């Protein structure tokens, strides 16, 4: 009896195994499809601002083209601290209103840089920071001048301080987000909300008036503008820069 039933048992096991394999195969197809769909949603609407080996989409403030002090290598945009000639802030060709900007950054020892936004390129404005607020990028511990809290990395420069513990040690990569939507401004530093404020209301006007920007008649007056990577004479690097219009 046992010998006669063996083919039937083997056949049953084979059918069960086929059913399991088919279910697993269908699950993997479904899961892969979900992953691709989620990735497509994540990438939808995002514009890359850091090319693999190109500074296309950028130019020097109020000048055509770029120069040798700036480079883009394997998707990392850097300013070389050793080059003393032909420097300047790197500015996007495109203008942005409400946006979400994601980027990684690290700063060289003793160096200063930043991301400045809402920039107006016009004859009366002599520097990017004359019209645009700044996400500060700086060596918190090795910068030669004494820094105030609102001058530390991740801060809305000279306006709102970022907690120093949010920022990684000098030379390490930090991940950050600048989001501006209907006047609401947020800075995210390594996953933590470092700055949150609202532009263009009475509190904002009072904040600006009490800062170094109070004397600048065009500072943060426009709701659209260009975005810049600041050249402050030192070395800094940026990668994975991408922006979404809101």
SSE blueprint and pairings:
Elements: H1 2-43, E1 46-48, E2 58-60, E3 70-73, E4 76-79, E5 90-92, E6 99-107, E7 112-119, E8 134-138, E9 174-181, E10 184-189, E11 192-198, H2 202-209, E12 226-229, E13 236-245
Antiparallel strand pairs: 1-13, 2-5, 3-4, 4-13, 5-12, 6-9, 6-13, 7-8, 7-12, 9-10, 10-11
Name its key features.
about 30% strand; alpha+beta; 5-stranded antiparallel β-sheet; 2 helices; single chain; 2 domains; 8-stranded antiparallel β-sheet; about 250 residues; Jelly Rolls
What does this structure look like?
The chain is an alpha+beta fold. The protein folds into 2 domains: 1-44; 47-245, Jelly Rolls, CATH 2.60.120.560. Helices cover 20% and strands 30% of the residues. The chain is built from 2 helices and 13 strands; from the N terminus they run αβββββββββββαββ. The protein has helices spanning 2-43, 202-209, and strands spanning 46-48, 58-60, 70-73, 76-79, 90-92, 99-107, 112-119, 134-138, 174-181, 184-189, 192-198, 226-229, 236-245. The strands form 2 sheets. Strands 1, 3, 4, 6, 9, 10, 11 and 13 form an 8-stranded antiparallel sheet that branches. A 5-stranded antiparallel sheet has the order 2-5-12-7-8, with no helix packed on it. The N and C termini lie far apart (74 Å).
């Amino acid at each position: 009896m046992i010998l006669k039933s063996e083919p039937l048992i083997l056949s049953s096991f084979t059918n069960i195994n086929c059913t399991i394999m088919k279910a697993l195969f269908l699950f993997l197809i479904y899961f892969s499809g979900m992953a691709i769909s989620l990735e497509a949603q994540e990438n939808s609407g995002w514009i890359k601002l850091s090319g693999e080996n190109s500074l296309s989409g950028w130019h020097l403030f109020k000048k055509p083209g770029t120069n040798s002090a700036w480079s883009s290598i394997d998707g990392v945009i850097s300013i070389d601290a050793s080059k003393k000639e032909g420097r300047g802030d790197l500015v996007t060709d495109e203008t942005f209103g409400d946006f979400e900007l994601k980027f990684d950054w690290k700063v060289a020892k003793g160096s200063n840089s930043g991301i400045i936004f809402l920039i107006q390129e016009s004859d009366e404005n002599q520097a990017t920071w004359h019209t645009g607020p700044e996400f500060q990028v700086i060596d918190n511990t090795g910068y030669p001048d004494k820094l105030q809290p609102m001058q530390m990395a991740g801060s809305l420069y000279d306006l709102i301080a970022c907690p120093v513990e949010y920022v990684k040690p000098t030379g390490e990569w930090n991940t950050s987000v600048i989001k501006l939507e209907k006047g609401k401004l947020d800075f995210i530093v390594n996953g933590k909300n470092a700055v949150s404020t609202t532009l263009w209301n009475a509190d904002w006007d009072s904040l600006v008036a009490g800062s170094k920007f109070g004397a600048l008649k065009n500072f943060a007056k426009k709701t659209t503008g260009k975005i810049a990577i600041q050249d402050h004479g030192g070395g800094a690097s940026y990668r994975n820069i991408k922006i979404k219009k809101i």
